[in-house]
Amino acid sequence: MSRASGGGPRVLDAELAVPAQCELAESPVWDTGRQLLLWVDILAGHVHTFDPATGDRDVFAAGLPVGAIGLTGDGGLVLALVDGFAVADIRGGRLTRLPGLTTDAGVVRFNDGKPDPWGGFCAGTMRWHPQGSGEPPGAYGGSEPGRLYRLAPDLSVSELVVGVGVSNGLDWTDDRRRFYYVDSPAGGVDVFDTDPDRGTLLDRRRLIDIPASEGSADGLTIDADGCIWVAVWGGGELRRYTPAGRLDTVVRLPVRQVSSVAFGGPGLGTLYITTARENMTAADIAAQPQSGDIFCAVPGVTGRPPFRFVPAATNSGA
Asked: End-to-end distance of the chain based on CA atoms, in angstroms?
């Protein structure tokens, strides 16, 4: 449903899509071939699958907390587990840890990620503390222990961004020349220039400011028009910003902890929005009983097929 907003941004209302009741749903991705929505429940270590056409649902346990997933070129999954990378088939079979990186799971965990336009998989870590806890963030490149990593097609791992508090939303433009990135405690969305051939990150700067009084930037995606959809954790909203950083559309949700978003459905015309009930009190949950569910909205614009992780040698066994 759309509402007039007195000359301000367009306002839409989200609807319930899946009564998932996750602790911390994140990393939604649409499988265009199978027409399925996938997402993770991070702390439970679960990967969920939903078929909107039939209502069928499935879930598998990764055995460890799982911060993010992405699709592989052969139809499997790449996973950012609590402390490193893995691959599996779409149902979680033949899950295999990959060498090259093991982080200190006592200090940080993987939180969000997705495949990039060059066939790699980018995912970042965060300190073990609640979002919005009020702990002071470090400066860019400072003492924060989080990192944004890239798993390359040859399975080598490199660091893209250091000094991160809560590595979160990320996406690339179709021309491969801009990369949008969220470090949640830093208060907004940053943009990098990117080398279109190699993906090298250059010239980081702030594009979108989200005041702490309104919540914090979380997961994000880009639509076919190049606009940025940002989940606002603690604010009960999903927001669309133009490439110039102007607020264009607001999707209201009946829960405050909005974690991420992906386009899916026929023609990629539906927004699927993940939410969480992490660290909520019994009173909070009574007031927001749909926290942890998956919501949807039809915004009148479409998304793009997700990028896929394409290893040089097939490892996912899908």
From this structure: 39
